[in-house]
Write a structure and sequence with these properties.
Elements (H helix, E strand, L loop, with lengths): L2 H18 L2 H12 L5 E2 H8 L3 H13 L3 E6 L2 E6 L1 H7 L2 H6 L16
Antiparallel strand pairs: 1-3, 2-3
């Protein structure tokens, strides 16, 4: 992998991890992932989080900018859901392999399943 490709990957992960580095945003992601519904209305998120709409919107915006969640408008309300493609990438072996130390022979230890 070339230096430019690595730089792009690292920038993407930096944005993602900055978005994840907040307890309220982690709670939001958990609520979305734990929901029995495909998506959750912003009004229900306000109630579950116990925060004003303006503060909730701030956190949702950061999660959306990191592409961790998706928004769909239904009538006058916005519904949010986990972006499974991006979340699976974060939880994937790709990240594991980016930081796995090579063994003495210069090959990457593939115990992570890569």
């Amino acid at each position: 992998m070339g230096a430019i490709e690595l730089q792009i990957i690292f920038k993407d992960y930096e944005k993602t991890f900055k978005a994840l580095a907040d307890e309220k945003r982690l709670k939001l992601l958990h609520l979305l992932a734990d929901s029995k519904e495909e998506s959750i209305c912003v009004c229900d998120l306000e109630e579950a989080m116990g925060m004003a709409q303006s503060k909730l919107s701030y956190h949702l915006k950061i999660l959306m900018q990191a592409d961790l969640i998706q928004r769909e408008k239904k009538g006058t309300w916005h519904y949010y859901s986990i972006n499974n493609e991006v979340m699976n990438k974060i939880l994937s072996e790709e990240l594991c392999c980016l930081f796995r130390r090579p063994d003495n022979k210069g090959t990457v230890n593939m115990n992570c399943g890569c």
